[in-house]
Amino acid sequence: MAQIISGKELAARIKQRVSGQVEELKAGGVTPCLAVVLVGDDPASAVYVRGKESDCRECGIGSRMLRLPADTTQAQLLEQLEKLAADKSVHGILVQLPLPAQIDEQAVIAAIPPEKDVDGFSPVNVGRMMIGEECFLPCTPAGCIEMLKSTGVPIAGKQAVVLGRSNIVGKPAAMLLLRENATVTICHSKTEDLAAVCAGADILVAAIGKPKFVTGDMVKPGAVVIDVGINRDENGKLCGDVDFAAAEAKASFITPVPGGVGLMTRAMLLVNTIQAARRQTGR
Ligand SMILES: Nc1nc2c(c(=O)[nH]1)N[C@@H](CN(C=O)c1ccc(C(=O)N[C@@H](CCC(=O)O)C(=O)O)cc1)CN2
Asked: In which residues is NADP(+) bound (predicted)?
């Protein structure tokens, strides 16, 4: 039976550390501040943005919430981002994804100055991550690595399989695992024998966006399973990309949904915001 990697406990520890760092910054006259931009009224995005607001409050980080209507044009959004970019009291900028269809996501991400891009999504930060330079790491993949490290299971030399190739999770998660010297395979919808590839993984990161996609036979006995998915099952209950009960019986460690990677995504954003404030103020 697998041990549960609790996102709740790990995130609470990180938040405690962040709160201390905020105190230090404030003592030096700097109040770290995160600006979050939400366009439209996607209910899940609204929940996530409220979560970010309350995390900031809890740790003493200042926050600016900019809620824009669903019919906001790209030009209007870019104008708002330009103002936030020029505002020295704002250290981190995040645009909640997904954006409404009329807005080009990549153009918006590229408009966030790399030094304020606390999501780590801008081309400059992605490039820096690829070549191992100092950068903001994307929050979900960084959270996955923290969870893996918390198990004490060595990553170096292990077969790691990442299920999913999105720009915000799959690809960067693979890159961060490579940085930890894992041997990394990325699987996707066109992968042949996908179940067999997964079954060979010592570390399995599921980020495919399909409820309970990973079945028990896809989990190697003793594997560490990190579930990034947030889905609803046939009963409308929150579930991950992994069939938890089946995988738990075979894995050595597993992350739950809810209470897993999502909470670490939130915590890593706070870490990045502190880093942004420190770099911009030289503290
Ligand atoms: N600009 C960004 N947009 C999005 C990101 C992101 O990192 N940056 N990631 C996701 C949404 N997201 C954060 O923004 C996020 C998703 C899930 C959770 C979370 O705490 N999940 C809980 C369950 C929540 C629920 O009840 O629905 C859990 O796993 O326990 C936090 C943040 C897409 N957009």
From this structure: 164-166, 230
What is the residue extent of each domain of the chain? 29-113, 139-262
pTM of the complete model: 0.97
Domain 139-262: give its CATH architecture: 3-Layer(aba) Sandwich (3.40)
Q: Is 119 a catalytic residue?
A: yes
- Coil, helix or strand for 132? coil
Which residues on neighbouring strands pair with residue 253, listed in sequence order?
A: 3, 224
Query: Which candidate in 21, 55, 80, 96 is catalytic?
Result: 96
pLDDT band of 93, cuts 50, 70, 90: very high
What is the pLDDT at residue 153? 98
Q: Do the domains at 29-113 and 139-262 have one common CATH topology?
A: yes
Establish whether 96 is a catalytic residue: yes
At residue 169, the pLDDT reads 98
In this prediction the ipTM stands at 0.95
The dihedral through the CA atoms of 22, 27, 28, 31 has a sign that is: positive
> Does the annotation count 210 as an active-site position?
no
3-state secondary structure of 220: coil
- Residues 131-145, mean pLDDT to the nearest whole number: 97
- Residue 122 Cβ < 6 Å to ligand 1: no
Distance from Cα 87 to the centre of ligand 1, integer Å = 26
Q: What is the DSSP string of 42-98?
A: -HHHHHHHHHHHHHHHHHT-EEEEEEE-TT--HHHHHHHHHHHHH-TT--EEEE-SS
Q: How far is the CA of 133 from the centre of ligand 1 (A)?
A: 26
Mean pLDDT of 166-177: 98
Most informative mutation of 96, 136, 167 for ligand 1 (most atoms within 8 A of CB): 96
- pLDDT digit string (tens) for 34-70? 999 999 999 999 999 999 999 999 999 999 999 999 9
